Amino acid sequence: MNYDACIKKSIEYIELNLMQKIELKDIADNVFLSKYHFHRVFHSVVGEPVAEYIRRRRLMESANELLNTDDKIVDIAFKYQFSSQEVFSKAFKRLYGISPREFRRNGNNISIMTSKNKITSQLSMAA
């Protein structure tokens, strides 16, 4: 069975809800699959677990905000559903190798290509 449409729809749901709490059950219900089956399909097609995908997308959006706004780092952290600035900073540094403060101060410009577009293009090529 081809799950490309389910994955595209689930990614759209995630993208629209990055600033809200996202439950696996809600995404799975949105594409009419069980949580267990959806997680397996998503991981197989996208190449990473749903929670990792969501965390990475939130970090990518927050990196964009660090570069393009003067919002406080703690406000950006809470906006993207991180429980504290420390949790956000650790996750940010793990992904980008630099703290959010250093990232903003140095004006480092990273490639902030949305994973949604990357996955969509991968699915189109597979069709």
UniProtKB/TrEMBL annotation:
For molecular function, the Gene Ontology terms on record are:
DNA-binding transcription factor activity; sequence-specific DNA binding
Q: Which Gene3D superfamilies match?
A: Homeodomain-like (1.10.10.60)
Q: Which PROSITE patterns match?
A: HTH_ARAC_FAMILY_1 (PS00041), HTH_ARAC_FAMILY_2 (PS01124)
Domain HTH araC/xylS-type intervals:
8-106
From which residue to which does the signal peptide run? Answer: none
Q: Which SMART domains does UniProt cross-reference here?
A: HTH_ARAC (SM00342)
* Superkingdom: Bacteria
Q: Which UniProt keywords apply?
A: DNA-binding, Transcription, Transcription regulation
PANTHER family, A to Z: RIGHT ORIGIN-BINDING PROTEIN (PTHR47504)
Q: Protein name, please? A: Helix-turn-helix domain-containing protein
